[in-house]
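Below: protein 1.
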Amino acid sequence: MPNLKTILFDLVGVLVFKKEKYEPKTKDEINASNIEGLFNHVDDEKLINDIKAKLKLTNTDINSAIRLIPEKYERFEKLWKILPKLKKRYKLAIINNGNAIASKYWKEKFGFEIFDLFINSTKVGTKKPDLKIYLLACKRLDVGPKECLFMDDRLENIEAANKLGMKTFWWNLERNKNDLLKTFIKHYGH
């Protein structure tokens, strides 16, 4: 069995979570939530057209709102604190089903410099659970699927990674994320 060389993270539901008491209040915050509700994760141009058609927003409205999309999320700090230790042993990457229209604001808020790779589904034209996105990550990181651990909160994405022979860790959000982290550290964080 090959040694583990890479950890592939999902973004929302593993590395970041919605703030517990977040409620959109301003016009821009409400627009940001509505835009997020239209995300299709594979085509930014279609998303912009949907926003204009379904939400009746102008380019100015869209630009004011998209910068706020990441604001309703916060890091799972306990996990981020162990990333430097993990980085000494593994390549770290993110595979994110997300539109790219707000990606610069996500980078500004969270800083992904510690990661060797950030794959955004819109930029590569495919999304989880399509096997192509996992294989693309492996190719770009120069590792085989069996050398990867993939972590996600969606079971269908975990099952897809399993088909490729990846080790997987399901962040089942029905369980406490602190307990999940302890289990993860026990198996992979030493």
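Below: protein 2.
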Amino acid sequence: MSVATEEVVLEVFGFVACARVLGLLSSVSREWRRIVDTNASLWELACIDCWRSKYCGADRSSRSALRRSVEERRSVFIDASLFARQRWWFRFTAQAGDAWTEHDPFWQGHEARELKFHLEDDHKGVVKWCHQDEDHSASSSSCWRLEDTDEGTILRVKNDSFHSPFPGCKLSRHPTNWGFIFHSVWVVYTNFPMHKTTSDRATSDRVLKRTLKDWQWTEVDAYNRQGWQGHDQDDDDDDDDDD
């Protein structure tokens, strides 16, 4: 194959470059396999096609990165470094109750709140809201940690205004954009924007609720019991003060 002919073939391949098509083209002949295997530009185009509208946070650099991202698209594990590099959006679920959803922008027809999970130099995880408002003022702070279990990574958040860490959020992946979804009985975090009028079925309360684990419901019950016990203790302290 002449240089000019190879340039034409390469140009044509560039218009249809995706992982599946490049694999088919490489099986046509030895010459086409050589062109596919030795031209990184084709795989860069395949990466662009594969990662289009994806929120997987992949290292977009090579053919091996493309293979790795496809293999990991269903992984329910994430390390703290990658977790902290993502942009995240947050909303309550309907299960959290009207007291929380009535002040949640998502439930009022707006885009969900955006936040960042910072990993400080001392390896302490700190939660910071990207847009402060009266419900998320600087007067209270939250910290986070990740916990790896046999069934995947669990996110745990503790706000200093509440009596104990919130029930854990388990990690899942969006079936089409490969994005990360952390959710519990009460809350949802995603590394892609959520908007009630445009969010798809995969992030709906109905679908996410079906994937909740027994331990998540158990943690909600334990959290509520601890809250009532703390409330009863406060009442006892008030009675002592009256005496």
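The beta strands are 88-92, 113-119, 125-129, 142-149, 152-159, 169-173, 180-183, 187-190.
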